[in-house]
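Researcher: Can you fold this with magnesium ion in place?
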Amino acid sequence: MDRTTKNVAVLGSTGSIGENTLQVIANSEGKLRATALSAHTQLDRLIEQAIRLEPDFVIATCPEQAEKQDWKGLPSHCELLIGEKETETVVRRTEIDIVVTAIVGAAGLQSTWAAVEAGKIIALANKETLVMAGPLVMTLATATGATILPVDSEHSAVFQALHAGNQKEVERIILTASGGPFRDHTPEKLKEVTVADALAHPTWDMGPKITIDSATMMNKALEIVEARWLFDLDPRQIEVVVHPQSIIHSMVEFIDGSIIAQMSPPDMKLPIQYALTWPHRQPSCGRKLSFDEAFNLEFEPVDRERFPAVELGMEAARLGGTSGVVLNAANETAVAGFLENQIKFNDIVPACRYVFDQHPFEATPSLNGLLKLDRWAREEVSRWICT
Ligand code: MG
């Protein structure tokens, strides 16, 4: 094999980011190879991917699902590994150069942590890792020489725009938000939102959890916390603006008032590829922006009363410590409750606020302490849902 080929482990390969990552790898003309793939439940899809991409390893993270699966179709040279712990073993292997962490939610933390410990290049699509444990992860990355590159489109945009100046010259970053499907809903209308309404996103095609987060704007809240740690910013330097077209993916303002924006159609293949080929750029199979027809770019301030999640994100970024882990865990549980019709759309953020406000705050928690609070917040929200 060409020595310049980079071996990529794609954790969460059957999800939306995972599938896009595999397209980017297939388009890389041999510069990237999918060496390991992991999936939790979509194991037929995992086998299909293994037949197509011939990885050395496939990991089925859920033993119960793996047990039920017929693995006959798996290519014979491909080693099957079962259980969540195996992702940690695989990402530590010396031949793995890049780890794409596309597992949704808190479940992505342990494998990302292992990749950081092993000093790998991490294409970070699991924003929860930094929301939950930003200071610990960034400190560990500095110690091990791991490189954390953003896949989140907003953070990729900021990362690209930051190249226009140095850290001291940054005035603020402006994260753009599509505003989700309910941008123009009145508070009364927001009360009536169904699961199907919330799952229909106007500009981005994503998994159910992040689509609901986008509708509540909790996604932006989590991204504020992610940006705070990833770019080592003062939380006061982070702003959010609604930009319904999702063409400008975020901006950096420098101290002289110059604002650098990154523009491209809403297609995750570009930020994924930039993380995989950084510091270089390659021709992309993603969509390109056309100026053959007129189009507008609009901006409007966030209505923080209708979307109180944004303020929660700002608070979590300001407070640090245990606030990110609690916000994330509360939100994951509340969103699951909404998807199962146990609570209303309008209850998701108040449930998070309730648990956030009464959690036993700690400024410098250990990883174990964070995981404990993660469980605590989930139980608290479940109790809140039941009462
Ligand atoms: Mg994003």
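Model: Folded with magnesium ion in place. The longest strand covers residues 32-39.
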